[in-house]
């Protein structure tokens, strides 16, 4: 299981660039991989293909992870949503999450947050990280 975010980076006194950050859960180990920052969208797409194939070097963040769950935050006043909630407005594809106009059921909803929860052995509560989506 994996998910990839595109983030904007801007080192001091340098032009802004885009960078892919991929989190991957494999055999109980969570890793983080990142591409070099670039302003070239063709190169960014090449990095995305590398992320899919796991060819980028990764840093192990956590071992012993039993599961990883996701929820998204909507701006419609109903808050957090998870895929298993039976909510027909949930994004069903990557394009629906990153571009609400691409989904037929989420046309009016902006997905502005992503919550990732890791379940670790011997822990009752999950380890949770929240990402802002589409921040300017």
Q: What features would you describe in this structure?
A:
This protein has 136 residues and is mainly β. The chain folds into two domains: 2-62, no CATH class; 67-132, no CATH class. 13% of the residues lie in helices and 40% in strands. It contains two helices and eight strands. A four-stranded antiparallel sheet has the order 1-2-3-4, with helices on one face. A hairpin with a 4-residue loop joins strand 5 and strand 6 (79-81). Residues 98-104 have low confidence and may be disordered.
Short structural summary:
13% of the residues lie in helices and 40% in strands.
Descriptive keywords:
single chain, 136 residues, mainly beta, 2 domains, four-stranded antiparallel sheet
Task: Set out the fold topology.
Blueprint: E1 2-9, E2 17-26, E3 29-34, H1 41-53, E4 58-62, E5 67-74, E6 79-81, H2 94-98, E7 111-119, E8 127-132
What is the number of domains?
2
Give the low-pLDDT segments.
Answer: 98-104
Shape: globular
Helix-strand pattern: EEEHEEEHEE
* Widest β-sheet, arrangement of strands: 1-2-3-4
Secondary structure: helix percent? 10-25%
Report the count of strand segments: 8
Radius of gyration (Å): 16 Å
Number of helical elements: 2
Beta-strand portion reads 35-45%
Oligomer: single chain
Mean pLDDT: 81
CA(first)-CA(last) distance: 28 Å
Q: How does the helix and strand content classify structurally?
A: mainly beta
- Sheet with the most strands, sense and barrel status: 4 strands, antiparallel
């Amino acid at each position: 299981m994996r998910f990839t975010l595109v983030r904007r980076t801007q080192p001091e006194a340098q032009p802004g660039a885009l960078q892919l950050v991929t989190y991957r859960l494999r055999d109980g180990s969570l890793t983080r991989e990142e591409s070099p920052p670039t302003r070239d969208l063709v190169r960014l797409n090449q990095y995305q293909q590398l992320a899919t194939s796991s060819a980028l070097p990764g840093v192990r963040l956590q071992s012993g992870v039993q599961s990883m769950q996701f929820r998204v935050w909507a701006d419609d006043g109903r808050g957090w949503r998870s895929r298993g909630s039976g909510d027909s407005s949930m994004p069903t594809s990557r394009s629906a999450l990153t571009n609400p106009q691409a989904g037929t059921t989420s046309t009016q909803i902006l997905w502005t947050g992503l919550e990732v929860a890791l379940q670790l052995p011997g822990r009752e509560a999950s380890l949770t990280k929240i990402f802002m989506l589409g921040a300017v």
